[in-house]
Amino acid sequence: MKKLFIFSCLLVLAACQKESDIPDENPREETPVTPPNTTGNSAIVYNVNKNIMLQLINDVRSKGCNCGSTVMPPVGILQWNDKLAKAAYLHSADMNSKNYFSHTSQDGRSPGDRITAQGFKWSAYGENIARGQSSEAAVMNGWLNSEGHCKNIMNGRFKYVGVGMQNNYWTVVFGTLQ
Question: What is the mean pLDDT of residues 51-73?
Answer without folding.
Answer: 97
